[in-house]
Amino acid sequence: MFWVMRPVYRNFRQLAASLTPSRLLPAVGWGSLGYALLTILLALAWWWLAGIYGRRPESLRGYVVWSRSQIAKYLPGNVLHYFSRQVLGRQVGVGHEALLASGLLEMVSLMLAASLLALFGALQASSAAWRDWHVILLALGLVLAGLFAWPALEALLRRVPYFSGRMQALPKMSLRAAAKLLLPAVTAHFAFFTGTGALLWWLGLKLSPATPRAFFPFLWAYALAWMAGTITPGAPGGLGVREAVLALQLGPMLGQPQAAMLALALRLVTVSGDVLTAGAGWLFHFLRPNLPGEPRENPEGG
């Protein structure tokens, strides 16, 4: 973060016109609201994946669980939001097995969607985008590993006496069933990354005169930044890593000071949007305490 903030500090006079309250505050305000709306896609994808064994919570209750837990990703470790879902998900009747599996498949879906968008954006942008091929390959490797991980772990748990009783009551999860379950989630996650990349481009139009009209470079830049921040161990919410990658990717096009400013503005937007999302979750939780909590049957059987 120090490296990202340094060019903004050193070129503050040059950036002063973009950082005035009359330009910055409306951009951040509307951007935060837009990002909060985009996170509904993330909640929808998790809710869908939570029905891996044929039962999922009511949609609004699922949104409350996801939105209340997601803010915990900013705590050190970048994993506490998954632990939060284990606790909150159990309160609405989702089993630990389904929560563990949905968390793993959610990461697979996110990585796959981000990788596809990064590849698509790289093809549309320029050959220089391929200098980050190693990030894309690593993400695709994690996708394959995650796709095989749960069926293999599930088969192992069915042989362990402590878990075998609970697992025998659940339908077996095959690679084909997992891939079928992932398709709607990947679609929602792809739409989220596309929307957030477009939001980054819109912020650039508002804050940087050097922003081009073509938004494809912003799509793959955000997808790469998200993947790099996510696979970095311990970075809460990818803090610092995503900003550095965005500054590196957009620097040749916008100039390093403008790119760094835009990366920091996006962080402000996403944090504010996540706060709005968490606030909405808590509001629903307190105003609608009697929301149905028991999972309902999924006619498609997961």
**Proportion of beta-strand residues:** under 5%
* Coarse structural class: mainly alpha
Query: What is the CA–CA distance across the termini?
Result: 42 Å
Helix count? Answer: 12
Helix content: over 70%
Notes on the protein architecture:
The protein has 302 residues and is mainly alpha-helical. It has one domain. It has helices spanning 2-10, 12-15, 21-49, 59-70, 80-91, 96-125, 133-157, 161-168, 175-207, 216-231, 241-254, 256-287, and strands spanning 55-56, 296-297. Strands 1-2 form a two-stranded antiparallel ribbon. It starts with a helix and ends in a 5-residue tail after the last strand.
Summarize this structure briefly.
With 302 residues, the protein is mainly α. It contains twelve helices and two strands; from the N terminus they run αααβαααααααααβ.
Keywords for this entry:
302 residues; 12 helices; globular
Layout of helices and strands:
Elements: H1 2-10, H2 12-15, H3 21-49, E1 55-56, H4 59-70, H5 80-91, H6 96-125, H7 133-157, H8 161-168, H9 175-207, H10 216-231, H11 241-254, H12 256-287, E2 296-297
Antiparallel strand pairs: 1-2
